[in-house]
Amino acid sequence: MENSDLEVARNTDIVSWTFSSLADGLDKPLLIDPSNESRWLSYNQARTHVRKLIRGLKTLGIQPGDCVCLDSFNDILYNILILGIIGAGARFTGVNPSYTVHEVAHHLRMTKPKLVIVEPPMLNTALTAAELYGLPRSAVLVFDEHEANPYSDLKSWNILLSHGESEFERVPDPTTTVAAYFTTSGTSGLPKAAMISHSYLVAQAAFHCEKAIALPYPVRRLTHGPPFHSFSTPIVPSSIRSNYPIYIMRRYNEANFLTSISRFQITETYMPPAILTSLPNSPLCTPENMSSIKQIWVGGASAPLKSRLPLYAKLSPAAQINVVWGLTEIGWVTTAVWPEKLLDDSVGRPLP
């Protein structure tokens, strides 16, 4: 990353940076649901949605510095909500959809959200946790994109899109202004909330753009990871800014994942070590089906060379598996950088 890029990270909020694309074709499919190809957003549509969410959140009373919590599986619109929340000057936080009432209540106490947006399958847990925390039902919206809202007294998140548009909220100092709360591992006790700045998010995503510019293949990404995890931080913002099509799975399913790689000729994807080691055992994981893959990033735990070799045997000779090392508090720290393939247990190169 050049000094000019570092200056951008220090002086630009993540939403303005994300929607500062110089790419062509800004009306083509960009954020795509692989389970329903007709469901997609272009760069321009995504930008309009974010501007509408900013106005809607402000109309609802969300102020700069407030927190908004999402409790949902992944979705193209989940990622738009993140940018809308941050673009309103608020702070995004997300909870794991598998959390129990106790875990959700703990997360709410940590992050103190003024609004919670919840997918129907998680509503009962979230409502009970919100009551324990002291959040009124009126502060809960239903993310009813895939299932109907089961409660007549709860409003749909779509009300946020019906108030017009607003510009992105400019932040006074991106290096210190908090954009999100990410949970740490909770090695000693319950998970803690790390305060993530705008500059952190811009710097992480900028690296993922910079290295893609000179790649000798068309970038088509597939992700299934939870957007609230730090490993996922750079994926969607960098894809939007670069106008690289990205297919966003609701959650991981081995057959659907492998079918999507082949069907959409995916060139880049992301996974934790557990999937890295299980994937080669699938009958769908064949060299033919995996032939489009050029780069795989693996993060969340260690992935020594011996655990990578079975999947390497299914990939084309030019493909590489990049192990990412980092921390929630500081993001991606080291990894391999194209076209340098690391066939050892090195941690790779420090990222800029």
From TrEMBL:
The keyword Ligase applies. GO terms for biological process: secondary metabolic process. PROSITE patterns: AMP_BINDING (PS00455). InterPro entries: AMP-binding_CS, AMP-dep_synth/lig_dom. Signal peptide: none annotated. Keywords: ATP-binding, Ligase, Nucleotide-binding. GO terms for molecular function: ATP binding; CoA-ligase activity. Pfam families: AMP-binding. It comes from the Eukaryota. Residues 27-352 form the AMP-dependent synthetase/ligase domain. Belongs to the ATP-dependent AMP-binding enzyme family. This is Acetyl-CoA synthetase-like protein. It comes from Glonium stellatum. The lineage of its organism: Eukaryota, Fungi, Dikarya, Ascomycota, Pezizomycotina.
